[in-house]
Amino acid sequence: MNVPARLLSLTIILFLSICVNKANATIQPATVDFKDKYQQGYSALKLAKFGLSYVKNLKNIGTFEEIEQQTQFFKHSEKTLNALLKEPTKNIDLLKIKYEIELNLERLSLEKKFKQLNQGKEIPETGLANVIMGKEWYQHFLKRWLSVDTPVDELSHFGNQQIKAVQENILDIQNTLGFVGDNEGFYRYLKQPKFELNKETSVIEKYSERDVIIRKNVGKLFKVTDIDEVIIAPIPDVTKDSPPGTYRRHGANTFSFNFWQNKHNTRAMDFLYLHEAIPGHHYHLKELAKHHVIKGDNKVPLYSVFIEGWAAYCEELGAELGVYKTPADWYGKHEWDLVRSVRVVMDIGLNFHQWSDKKAHQFWQDNIVGQDDIAQREIDRMRRWPAQVLTYKVGAEHIINLKKSLEEKQGNDFDIKRFHSILLNDGGTVPLKLLASLVQ
Question: Which end of the chain is more exposed for a tag (fewer CB within 10 A), N or C?
């Protein structure tokens, strides 16, 4: 343990006694006091951070004594919170704590059962399908990553719907370019040298041009138009398994592009810059930092389903922001959207339905043309980081649906700039299930 058991127990007891006494006071002071004391008690537990690797997460499970102490803390916190929530509230902070308590109690129940069944055996690194209670853990990881409670079958159905929709969009582009019924000719056309840049300076120049265009148009959709500079550079130490692009915010403000073997696909440039830079990660995280401390010891917990969902949603705004000027640019967007959609179904197949690599490869090849070279990379990722790849599609879908709902409800009164500002200011700091409450 990081904290002596006796000291930790005293901290929890002190926290609980204060909460019980304050619960009988007026609601507002009790609410403020509960939030403060809950955070103090939570910090005292020194919980291991939930990470990408399922192996590390399972290895971080504490002793039975620690599990019991955590359970005591969250159960008593839940009791105190329920007393506060008897009064109608729209307090997002309280609703967020309620969500966290419920999720932690579920985690602790699984951890206790897992330790009893696993009996100290090594955690298999070949995927959750080979882990004791693998299906139960996968469903829990889905909740942790997505911050909504959506059944596995419903998510799989959503993934298949998205695959079909994106494939229809690609077919429309194929027909627009004059390749009606000619799949072979269409994909041969996409391999032409004109869609490839081979000089680093040329790639930086082209991304810089997109930066200028988007900044000129950002005022159409967003209130804040004074945006920090984005540094554009190739991914350092790039490999064949590196992603198309990344963003580093900690003092770097850098959008990095994949320049493996001195090649970069021009079709990917529009959607990548929207996702990683403006108005995606760079723009969002800079705005979020203005309203919250999101670094150092006072870091505000961020829900990556919104972080990635927002960036994926921003790819839908390209036409209004002055990019996606050619059918090939649109194809680049849909090309990667298809990968994300296929991953939703594959992740569930691999980790919940125990698909073999062979079956996963076949599903990939049945639905994606021309990207077999990254299939194994994606399969390995899904086995190592179960449920994480769903954050992009699920997060974006929630934002899109929320916007549609508000547009229908508010009609001409709907303000896209205000909608975006609310999401930029607080999106990512609350579970996805509370996003509608945040906006409304």
Answer: C
- Round to whole Å and give the CA distance between 63 and 105: 16
Q: How do the domains of the chain map onto residue ranges?
A: 5-123, 153-195+216-223+282-439
Which pLDDT tens digit goes with each residue over 182-205? 999 999 999 999 999 999 999 999
Q: Does residue 274 have a pLDDT over 80?
A: yes
pLDDT at 250: 65
Strand order of the β-sheet with 245-248 is: 231-234, 254-257, 245-248
Are the C-beta atoms of 239 and 264 separated by less than 8 Å?
Answer: no
Long-range Cβ contact pairs of 291-297 (< 8 A, separation 24 or more) = 291/425, 291/426, 292/426, 292/429, 295/250
Q: Are strands 264-265 and 245-248 parallel, antiparallel or unpaired?
A: unpaired
- What is the per-residue pLDDT for 32? 87
How far from 131 is each of 50, 124, 136, 337, CA to CA, in Å?
A: 18, 6, 10, 31
Question: Could you tell me which residues are beta bridge partners of residue 256?
Answer: 233, 246
Instruction: Give the global pTM.
Output: 0.91
CA 49 remoteness from chain centre: 16
In DSSP terms, which residues pair with 233 in a beta bridge?
Answer: 256
* Pair of tokens at residue 236: 């350092």
Cα–Cα dist 365/202, whole Å: 33
Range with the poorest average pLDDT among 192-206, 291-305, 394-408, 421-435: 291-305
